Amino acid sequence: MNRITKMLIAVSLPALLLANISLAAETGSALKNDSMRFEPFSDAKLTGSFTRGESLEIIKKQGAWLQVKTKKSAGWVRLLSVKRGASSSTGNQTSGVLAAASGRAGTGQVVSTTGIRGLSEQDLKAAKFNETEVKTLESYTLSADQGKQFATAGKLKTIAFANLKAPQGDAK
Amino acid sequence: MNISAPVLKTHKSLLISALLVSLFGTLSFNSAAFDFEGAIKDTVKDAVKKQIDPQAESASTTVPATENTTAATEPAFNWKNPSKDEEIALGREISGNLLGAAPLVKDAALQKYVNSVGRWVASQSERPDLPWRFGVIESDDLNAFAAPGGYVMVTKGLYRKLTNEAQLAGVLGHEIGHIVKKHQLKVLQKQQLLNFGAGLLSDKYAKDNKLVSKAIGSGAEISARSLDKSAEYEADRLGVSYATRAGYEPFGLADVLQTLGQTSKNDGSVALLFKTHPLPDERLAALGDAVGSKLDNIKNGKTLENRFYVLKN
């Protein structure tokens, strides 16, 4: 039974994901100012633009692109320009920070009262080196060859791709 | 592995506090980090005390720490330029402490799966020669950790949020990036240099220990902070790069950041993380700036949800 359940989950997951991607009317918001294009290509003609924080409707995903709709226009945009999920207006950034900041004092309590399995400061300070656990961890160490076999089994193929660099003139 | 256990033991408290700054950005050591400043101060104070007064237990006089006594109390470990073995020994100590707080999930198939994915991604990094090891640990926090020398751990809470192998590859790739760039090691080294500095300072300030530890406490705090943000962005870029080279769909890490971005800000498992690290939205935007058009032509990257290991509970 268990195995069947697992199989069902394994089978339905991709379907669920696909559904997620292709379902119309997923909401989102712009992470930055960007322009939309007629097709999912960087040289396709422009159809409009949006500003950071603006609400969007996500229509579908294709490779590195999302097809989106704003109140004024529609088009394709690179997916890293869009925050997926419930609309967050421009004010969200601030309120998020404030919410997190105000949660700070309570953090310790929240963790201890909800029974989240412990990584509190006290736990950490009191933590004792656990030789048995480290040895268990190390017992799982695989060789590069074993990693390669695993990749082959999943039909993963390496491709040439240079490490991404920080954008120029960006302190980030 | 030339370091004897006792030597490392003297660093244990230091290691613990270093752990606080070595976390995956999204994935900060939640409740632990909230008194980060205090923890650092305590630790540094202890370390400074040892430096200033290495014979405190046998002698009541304050012995100024000369370079000789420093060498005598801190032998064997080459802090200026640690060897690979030293780096691994350090990471082992940090990982052992972390595992003392949150043990491995008792599921060999899970651990084996995570090691398979991690090893393959690590092979695409600049340091394929390290003995990479990966673990899922018992915690409901959303977090992941890297320690020098190739130790990577992901919480069960974070693993539970993943839905395919490309996302796991992205998360592990981020941690691998921290190790390749020696982000944690550099924090530790900086802290040690400050300790050595304290030893030298003690000649002048031996009578006012408070002054010394105060100065060092705030100094270490600032450098840890400023390193943090840029290190996280860098690890994000590397995580995407490694996973992409490994043949995965390049946006796995971005998926996870989207998920984290949708997690309620009031959720205890992420509240602190959002405070101490760049918000997921900022990380996504920064990643977008770095990616530009570079991923437009990457096709056929795999997500492999069909073989993604689903947790039993």
What's a concise summary of this model?
The complex is a heterodimer of chains A (172) and B (313). With 172 residues, chain A is α+β, with helices and mostly antiparallel strands.
Tags for this model:
heterodimer; A: 172 residues; alpha+beta; SH3 type barrels; 20% strand; B: mainly alpha; three-stranded mixed sheet; 14 helices; globular
What report would you give on this structure?
In chain A, about 40% of the residues lie in helices and about 20% in strands. By secondary structure, chain A is α+β, with helices and mostly antiparallel strands. Chain A has a domain of about 70 residues: SH3 type barrels (Roll), CATH 2.30.30. In chain A, the strands form 2 sheets. A 5-stranded antiparallel β-sheet of chain A has the order 6-5-4-1-7. In chain A, strands 2-3 form a two-stranded antiparallel ribbon. Chain A is elongated, with a radius of gyration of 23 Å. With about 325 residues, chain B is mostly helical. Chain B has 14 helices and 3 strands. Chain B is globular. The interface between A and B is large, with 81 and 105 residues.
